[in-house]
Design brief:
Layout: H1 3-6, E1 8-17, H2 27-36, E2 44-52, E3 55-64, H3 67-84, E4 92-95
Antiparallel strand pairs: 1-3, 1-4, 2-3
Length: 99
């Protein structure tokens, strides 16, 4: 892959909050939901994830031309995962927040 045309790898932190009454989800379910919505244009290279009773925190390594683009790409992937995964329908993305 030619990094010159796509930019550099950027690390973007993200966090999801879940409602108190929502069941806890195993990390592999959330990770699978994120990977399922990744497309070639998202630039996602790697995702690390930690699930807790409050939701989940993670970090994505993305190919992007700059930091703000990487944040937008990460936000888009996270929002798609929430939108299409029934078990996450009541969860919300808290980081990265809208600019």
């Amino acid at each position: 892959m030619a990094y010159g045309t796509l930019g550099c790898v950027h690390l973007v932190e993200f966090a999801f909050a879940k409602p108190h009454d929502a069941p806890e989800l195993p990390g592999d379910v959330l990770l699978a939901a994120l990977w399922a919505v990744c497309g070639p244009g998202d630039g996602v290279e790697h995702i690390r994830l930690h699930v807790s009773r409050a939701g989940a925190r993670g970090a994505a390594f993305l190919l992007a031309p700059d930091g703000p683009s990487a944040v937008r790409q990460c936000r888009a992937v996270c929002r798609r995962a929430l939108a299409v995964t029934g078990a996450l329908s009541a969860w919300r993305l808290v980081c990265p927040a809208e600019a």
